[in-house]
């Protein structure tokens, strides 16, 4: 089974929708392919992350009023042809109409849905937490030597991630691993600050222009992301914000 075919079946595999023979084929391929295994781990982590309460946003108090107002306008537009009454509308159609109106408002009212960066931040935090919980997955290559870690990615990614060791500044390189984030394979570099681990995720940016640091916080973890030299960078750790900014500064100055 090829990587493309396996990744097409992973969603169904996670949901338990494959038959036994196909499930065994997927499992066998993932045992032999680190990239597809990483895709599977991230799908299961993302599935768990979607259950996190931080992704759910309470509807504003005026949402019901907006829906009812939209329904009244719709009723008036139909008044010339037939009398419109919720009493005569089948329950299923009424429910569908309410859901449709709620969806339209959800799509058009700012702040009611998480942005792409919000979803990516949650995915990154989930990946970071999983790497801390599973020591065997913390690093695919363990080394403090940047000249060992950087060549390890050769042939595994379609880009060459910049790898630097900052032991002299108190942020030693621990190793690296492959991950699957933002719908693509990415490089994850692992650094340490005393007892705190930092995951630095790197992948090519869609645009070459640089962007400044953006700081966020999810589930008690600090995140920083920026773009420089045609690469996206996301750093995540339970390290305090000041020291994480210092780490980000070192990474940017080394590029």
Strand line-up in the sheet with most strands: 1-2-3-4-7-6-5
Strand content: 15-25%
Give the CA-CA distance, first to last residue: 39 Å
Strand pairing plus helix content: what structural class? Answer: alpha+beta
- Please estimate the helix content: 40-55%
Estimate the mean pLDDT confidence: 82
Number of helices: 8
Shape: globular
Main beta sheet strand tally, sense and closure: 7 strands, antiparallel
Order of helices and strands: HHHHHHEHEEEEEEH
Key phrases:
alpha+beta, 7-stranded antiparallel sheet, 255 residues, 21% strand
What can you tell me about this protein's structure?
It is a single chain. The chain is α+β, with helices and mostly antiparallel strands. It is built from eight helices and seven strands, in the order H-H-H-H-H-H-E-H-E-E-E-E-E-E-H. The protein has a seven-stranded antiparallel beta sheet, with helices on both faces. Strand 5 and strand 6 form a beta hairpin. The radius of gyration is 24 Å and the shape is globular.
Summary?
It contains eight helices and seven strands; from the N terminus they run H-H-H-H-H-H-E-H-E-E-E-E-E-E-H. The chain is α+β, with helices and mostly antiparallel strands.
